[in-house]
Amino acid sequence: MDAKFPIYRAAFSGLLALLVGIGVARFGYAPLVPELVIAHWFSASAAFWLGTINLAGYFIGAAVMRMWRRPLDARRAVIGLMGLTAVAMLASAYNFGLLWFGMWRLLTGISGGVLMVLMAAAVVGRAPAAQRGRVSGITFAGMGTGITLSALLIPYLIRGGIAFTWTSLGVICVAATLIVAVIMPAATIIPAPKTATRGRISTPVQLLIIAYAGTAVGFMPHALFWASFVAIGLHRGVAAGAEVSAILGLAAAIGPPILGRVADRFGFLPTLAWGYVVMAAAVGLPLWLHATPALALSAAGVGAVALGSVMLAAGAIATLVPAERLAADWGLATMIYAVAQAAIGAGFSALFHVTGSFDLLFGIGAIALLACALLVFAVARLASS
User: Fold this and answer.
1) Is 31:150 a contact under the CB 8 Å cutoff?
2) Three-state secondary structure along 106-151?
3) Which CATH architecture fits 199-385?
4) What residue spans define the domains of the chain?
5) Does position 246 have pLDDT exceeding 80, yes or no?
6) What pLDDT does residue 234 have?
7) Which residues, including other chains, have CB under 8 Å from residue 72's CB and lie 6 or more apart?
8) Contact 250, 147 (CB under 8 A)
9) What is d(CA 130, CA 109) in angstroms, rounded to the nearest whole number?
10) What is the pLDDT, as a whole number, of residue 8?
11) What beta strand segments (E) does the chain contain?
12) Which residues contact 192 (CB under 8 A, 6 or more apart)?
């Protein structure tokens, strides 16, 4: 670690990169789906396919970073990927058919996957150990900030039409890219040689990756069904569902910086483990309490920890492996989480179709998170010994 490396400039660059690559380009698509269907741009099934192909691109991007073996100019790569994402958002304003749109959704997925892994290596991996949590929190807050920004802006932008909305989101991406081009310091990522990553992954890292992937079970009930649970399951209407979803997004923006400060004081692994315990309680809370403050607390707990755990898991792996191996092992964790998220999302959708029970989903999610917390506690004990 170069003591003169401007780590906070890099961290803010990472925030903007993940805001664009994940928060806006990936999660900003979901609020637009109903409008795409209503305006007859695509059928409901085609809109779902476009979301799936974006997730497939995310997996490809993470896989590319795991296999990358050449020195990489992180600054040029980040600017190039953000620029590609901006172009994709602007191109999406033109409805030239499903293949055209699918190509851009795939490319934004790939760029998002690469940026997720690259920013861990370029920022988290270069941060001093004593500041790693704070720096990681700033970087990964970009995802929640982008989600919140999209959720707040899109209802107003859509009044100007779908093309205007995509163009506006594209302009935001262009502006963020230009800022990063000015402020991001030069950094070269030297991946571990092929022989170093070919060997067996250590048991603590294996368990940590399993726990990280398993938390998708706990996140899916809120990620997919939360607004519907409040609006339909509790008969409180669409507006109430949107309000609790906004709380989840806001918590996702502020959760990583807070958890990062906690991790600097208590360590990444203990913070991650107790974070999963808190998230389990938040997921399980609607099983007993349906009052508005309880629903808000549930949304806040899940949003803060779910997005914060991405930062905590990356930081935990950084404490367990050499810096040159971080991109490969974090890339593997990102790939496995992407597959788990897609499979669990499909499984939960099928389960809800059969049972119609929101409570069953929340119960499964809470139990899974407690199991993941126990795994991380085991990792912490193995690491300390």
Assistant:
1) yes
2) HHHHHHHHHHHHHHHHHCHHHCCHHHHHHHHHHHHHHHHHHHHHHH
3) Up-down Bundle (1.20)
4) 1-191, 199-385
5) no
6) 84
7) 118, 188, 189, 191
8) no
9) 33
10) 83
11) 72-73, 188-189
12) 322, 324, 325, 327, 328
- In angstroms, the CA 378 to CA 272 distance is 12
For residues 120 and 309, the model is more confident at: 309
Candidate CATH numbers 3.40.50.2300, 1.20.1250.20, 3.40.50.2000, 1.10.20.10; the one for domain 1-191: 1.20.1250.20
Per-residue CA distances from 215 to 230, 243, 364 (Å): 22, 24, 11
Q: How far apart are CA 236 and CA 244, in angstroms?
A: 11
For 114, the token pair is: 């690469």
Q: How confident is the model at residue 103 (pLDDT cuts 50, 70, 90)?
A: very high
Q: Beta 72-73 vs 188-189: how paired, if at all? A: antiparallel
More confident site: 34 or 168: 168
**Is the confidence at residue 108, as pLDDT, over 90?**
yes
Residue range 173-213, pLDDT digits in tens:
999 999 999 998 887 776 666 555 555 788 899 999 999 99
**Would you give the distance in Å from CA 251 to the centre of its chain?**
13
- Say whether 94 sits in a helix, a strand or coil: coil
- The first and second tokens of residue 346, run together, are 């499909």
Query: Could you give the 3-state DSSP secondary structure of residue 266?
Result: helix
Task: Check for a shared fold between 1-191 and 199-385.
Answer: yes
Contact 162, 36 (CB under 8 A): yes
- For helices 132-157 and 162-183, the axis angle rounded to 10 degrees is 150
Tell me the β-bridge partners of 73. Answer: 188
Average pLDDT over all residues of the chain: 86
- Cβ pair 18, 143 in contact under 8 A: yes
Residue type, 216: A
